[in-house]
What does this fold into?
Amino acid sequence: MACILHIETSTEVCSVAVSENGQCIYSNEDFNGPSHASTLGVFVDEAMSFADSHAIPLDAVAVSCGPGSYTGLRIGVSMAKGICYGQDLKLLSVPTLKVMCVPLLLSTREFPDDALLCPMIDARRMEVYAAVYDRALKEVRPTQADIVDENSYHEFLEQHPVYFFGNGADKCRDRIVHPNAHFIPDVHPLAKWMFPLAERAYLNDQFEDVAYFEPYYLKEFVASKPKNLL
It folds into this structure.
């Protein structure tokens, strides 16, 4: 097992965590943002001081790689790269929408066997960034920019109970009114929920090139979507 520093800045929430041996051992969160430029450095210093004071050497830095806020992701990835360069650490990236699923799957909430999870990040107007996963976090539909109306996700809702959550889901309640649609409030992508995905990537040697890595939002998503979604 590894000791990993986790950085999550994809939304208005700034959070940093440290995990070791499959457990989160340190976490700090600021829900009063976005103020990542001033908050993240302090959080990272405190997290690294915690690891150092407990004689726990870091093995890697994991960063939430989007989709999400252009500025937030850029700040988080720049910080992660700087630490990796300075400390000679491995870099891991974790999809933001998958991070949002982790607290639900680790909770005591019971989902039907055929349930689908649809995390949503707010974009503009009735637009969201969303993906669809099954309970094993297998991708049923990849991340897309969706303009939500009464027909959105109909092909999934006709066959499965679908659980919508994230800061993009609240504005969709009045549009998605299918009986199989369920909404879960107060779910955020947080650094303390990154560890199961980051540790799996670490064990599978799925490391990023520190020099060339860019967040998903910058490298792929923006290039394939209209500019009015940025």
Q: What stands out?
A: Helices lie at 36-53, 70-87, 96-106, 154-157, 195-203, 216-224. DSSP finds six helices and ten strands in the chain. The CA atoms of residues 112 and 161 lie 8 Å apart.
